[in-house]
Specification:
This protein is mainly beta and 608 residues long. 13% of the residues lie in helices and 37% in strands.
């Protein structure tokens, strides 16, 4: 994001907002920043301790008189007396241990009815100003709600901004609210350097417990806001009302181009889902499936169209309770699975592939209690049906089924040393294999045809490979990204179809950020971008053209996330069991729904 020089100090927080919202905060930050004044951290209590000798001074007790002055008293007593009368004696001055200011800034916001509307935008601007203030002083910022219980929050993600905006109450601030916070802060081991109280009609507080009071009031004509800061002196400024359209979007928490899908009606609610398994996205981008918590099966959701008015289409797909799902994959809108039961593997809802005896563990490692779905791809051609599955030991298995009366082939083909697998086209998959110290990428079709290998770089230290979804794979190399470790952070080498085999772009992600997919951006200029998951588990971003951008944030921590390179969809399930499906090509939210209900639209039971 390109920002003017005047806004660069707050860049890390302004990047959470869409470009059209920046003028709102540019005006507020520019008007409020000069009012804050210097940091007023209070000193630690107690008497300062001496810390050696400091400087020389002409005043002090005679036990600290320089030894050379005492020699002068013995040898030339008259001169000693003269220097004493004239104040010319030199004394040693002790050095005291520095009294550091308390490195904690606390800001408490009024979430009552007097602070609804544009005043909340002032809260956000002030929060960013104080975050920068704390960063410059090497301090920490925490915020809380005056009407809420004494709980402090960090400002580490856009989700915290949404938390502040969503905190609303019809109760004004009372003395009891402040007393509860004051007593709680006094009982903490860590003293507070600055305490800011922000709102309207705030309770009276002494400067020892509350260093800054901010009154935010709407003018009588409704055309401006009054910002009054009461600290060592009182400062005031009038703030213009922000543009209504942008203000409404911000107050709703729509920081980026988020479009919420119609909420599910009573006839389209979604049952509870597990949080340990990721969503499964169809390559066509029409359906998303999740593992149900209370039943043995998957819930399949058809993504609504842009202006859809009818209720959400939700279906259950069930199998026998004694079977365990090892992997899930879509073929268009049909969901298939590899199920395990005792010594048998079943290919649920995949026509033409009959159940088989489970291969021994030394041949194919298929643990029944896997914490995630194993990568798999289901391809269909006019001649055959094929299911590819990558086990946890890097072995890629392929089973072929019967189609159009052609016989099924018994057993499976297994390829070892495989690093990654993904479907990249309706008829094509790609996988990467370590061969002779190199990462070699292959493309395969539903007919079983395999391309020649593409050597994309050294295999030393490569732990993961992501593939771009593009039709180039049908005839040529389509693009991939190789992951290596960089002192605890992710380093990616991106090889595109037009740069292969010579050029490789290196991307070093910020600590804690993780790439979950490689997106092929189609437009006037073809680009490749990494789809990212933030370190706080609240943010999904995009690294494109050398810049890292926020796509969307969640109100609860992300439990599992999936990216589909074919459709460009990101699906996340949060700890609150909220499913969000975002389209990277459209930069729009396709679906946002809670998966915590029991009622269902359609009861469709299928047993393998």
């Amino acid at each position: 994001m390109q920002l003017p020089d005047a806004l660069q100090p707050w860049r890390q927080w302004l990047e959470w907002f869409a470009p059209q919202h920046l003028p709102v905060f540019a005006d507020l930050l520019g008007r409020l920043n000069p009012l804050l004044g210097p940091l007023r951290g209070r000193q630690q209590g107690g008497v300062p301790e001496p810390d050696g000798l400091g400087d020389l001074q002409r005043r002090g007790p005679y036990e600290r008189l320089l030894s050379s002055e005492w020699l002068l008293a013995e040898e030339v007593p008259d001169e000693f007396l003269r220097r004493a009368v004239g104040g010319e004696h030199m004394f040693l001055a002790p050095q005291y241990r520095a009294r550091e200011a308390n490195r904690l800034i606390v800001v408490l916001f009024d979430a009552g009815p007097l602070q609804l509307g544009a005043a909340r935008l002032v809260h956000i601007a002030l929060l960013m100003l104080l975050a920068r203030r704390a960063e410059e002083a090497g301090a920490e910022l925490r915020w809380g709600l005056l009407q809420g219980p004494p709980v402090l929050h960090e400002l580490d993600s856009p989700a915290q901004i949404k938390r502040l905006l969503n905190a609303r109450t019809y109760e004004g601030v009372s003395d009891s609210h402040w007393y509860a916070w004051r007593d709680w802060m006094a009982a903490q081991d860590r003293p507070v350097g600055e305490c800011w109280m922000v709102g309207q009609r705030l309770p009276v507080a002494d400067a020892r417990h509350c260093s800054h009071r901010v009154q935010v009031k709407r003018s009588l004509d409704g055309r401006s806001l009054s910002f009054e800061l009461q600290a060592s002196q009182t400062r005031r400024v009038l703030l213009p009302m922000p543009q209504a359209q942008h203000a409404v979007q911000l107050l709703k928490g729509q920081f980026d181009h988020e479009v919420k899908a119609p909420p599910a009606s009573k006839t389209g609610v979604v049952p509870r889902v597990v949080l340990t398994l990721p969503p499964v996205i169809s390559g066509s981008g029409s359906h998303v499936a999740l593992r149900m918590l209370d039943e043995t099966g998957m819930v399949v959701i058809k993504l609504p169209s842009r202006n859809q008015k009818k209720s959400l289409e939700v279906r259950r797909r069930l199998w026998s309770s004694h079977q365990r799902a090892l992997s899930m994959s879509f073929h268009y809108r049909s969901l298939g699975a590899v199920l395990s039961s005792d010594n048998t593997l079943s290919f649920w809802n995949i026509p033409g592939i009959a159940p088989i005896d489970k291969p021994p563990a030394e041949r194919l490692h298929l643990p029944p209690g896997t914490a995630t779905f194993l990568p798999s791809v289901w391809l269909r051609s006019q001649k055959s049906e094929r299911l590819y599955l990558l086990d946890s030991k890097g072995r890629l298995a392929c089973w072929q089924g019967a189609v159009l009366r052609a016989p099924a082939r018994e057993g499976c083909d297994i390829t070892d040393n495989v690093i990654g697998l993904a479907q990249v086209d309706t008829l094509t998959l790609a996988y990467a294999r370590s061969e002779g110290g190199q990462v070699v990428v292959y493309a395969a079709t539903g007919d079983g045809l395999r391309s020649g290998g593409y050597a994309v770089g050294t295999a030393n230290g490569v732990s993961q490979v992501l593939f771009a979804g593009t039709a180039y794979w049908r005839q040529y190399f389509g693009g991939c990204a190789l992951l290596t470790d960089n002192l605890g952070s992710q380093r990616w080498r991106v090889v595109t179809h037009d740069s292969f085999p010579s050029k490789k772009a290196q991307i070093d992600l910020a600590p804690g950020w993780k790439a979950i997919g490689l997106h092929h951006e189609v437009g006037p200029q073809e680009l490749h971008a990494l789809v990212l998951l933030g370190p706080n588990q609240y943010t999904v971003g995009l690294y494109i053209e050398g810049q890292q951008r926020v796509l969307f944030t969640t109100s609860a921590a992300i439990a599992r996330a999936t990216f589909c390179p074919m459709s460009g969809l990101v699906a996340v399930i949060t700890s609150a069991r909220e499913l969000l499906v975002y389209s990277v090509p459209e930069r729009a939210m396709r679906l946002q729904v809670l998966c915590n209900q029991v009622a269902l639209l359609t009861h469709e039971r299928e047993h393998a």
